[in-house]
Write a structure and sequence with these properties.
Helix content: 40-55%
Largest sheet: 3 strands, antiparallel
Distance between the termini: 14 Å
Strand order of the largest sheet: 2-1-6
Strand content: 5-15%
Order of helices and strands: HHHEEEEEHEHEHEEEHHHH
Number of strands: 10
Structural class: alpha+beta
Number of domains: 2
Number of helices: 10
Length: about 240
């Protein structure tokens, strides 16, 4: 069994560098044209995955990476500037290309989905949060283009779909069962894992798979201290691989 992982930010960085930084495209204008940046600032302010005007949440187009940590950037004229003003970068094709190549910049979630979903029209599956924030990013991008008087490049933007929030595999840790991930399968799988996984995928119902996640989802949505009397406190029995 081989674990294959592709970073969507790395894919977007490569696409921007190869096809957009030096060419006249919508994405080039978004990064380097001040009118486009101001329109982006208007329509994306406060959206999940984008940024907030007070600089306390998210980042403007790119995260800056320093000493293995990311920190947010704000737009000031034709520069991206950190909140503490210890970092600034001029928005020029050559400086962005160099920063992406050196791992100094990382595309924000909003920019990532603008590239993959809005511009290239890829169908993006994800968790229960993504099916909420991605349509809002798509709507904001289309509104921005309308504001700029630009025809929509991809009129068939795909609606995101829920693809990851189900579970039918668990690991035994002492007297407890915990939900397993793809990495767990790569680390602890054996010659029988694939066949047993295939069998479970064919026989487990959607209801069973979702039931295993209910306690975790309610914790994420409502917080650890919230009590939901209509939810059985006991974790549903998990299926084994």
């Amino acid at each position: 069994m081989h674990l294959i992982y592709l970073s969507q930010e790395a894919i977007v960085s490569s696409l921007l560098t190869k096809y957009h930084l030096e060419k006249n495209t919508e994405l080039h204008e978004l990064i380097f044209n001040n009118s486009w940046r101001l329109s982006y600032k208007c329509f994306f302010n406060g959206l999940v995955g984008a940024f907030s005007d007070d600089g306390r949440r998210g980042t403007f187009l790119f995260w800056a990476i320093r000493d293995g940590h990311r920190f947010g950037l704000s737009l000031e004229g034709d520069e991206l500037v950190s909140i503490d003003r210890s970092y600034r970068l001029r928005l020029l094709p050559e400086t962005i290309a160099t920063a992406l190549k050196n791992g100094e910049l990382l595309p924000s979630m909003a920019l990532t989905f603008i590239v993959l979903s809005c511009y290239y029209g890829l169908l993006c599956g994800g968790g229960f949060s993504q099916v909420d924030y991605l349509p809002k990013i798509q709507i904001a991008y289309q509104a921005m283009l309308n504001d700029l008087g630009v025809s929509i490049a991809n009129e068939k933007t795909e609606i995101p779909f829920l693809s990851s929030d189900y579970a039918f595999i668990s690991l035994q840790t002492g007297d407890k069962q915990v939900l397993a991930t793809g990495l767990d399968l790569a680390l602890y799988g054996n010659d029988e894992t694939f066949n047993r996984l295939t069998s479970l995928a064919e026989t487990t119902t959607v209801s069973q798979a979702l039931d295993n996640l209910i306690p975790k989802l309610y914790t994420i949505v409502g917080g650890k201290k919230n009590v939901f009397p209509f939810i059985n406190a006991a974790m549903p029995s998990c299926l084994y691989v």
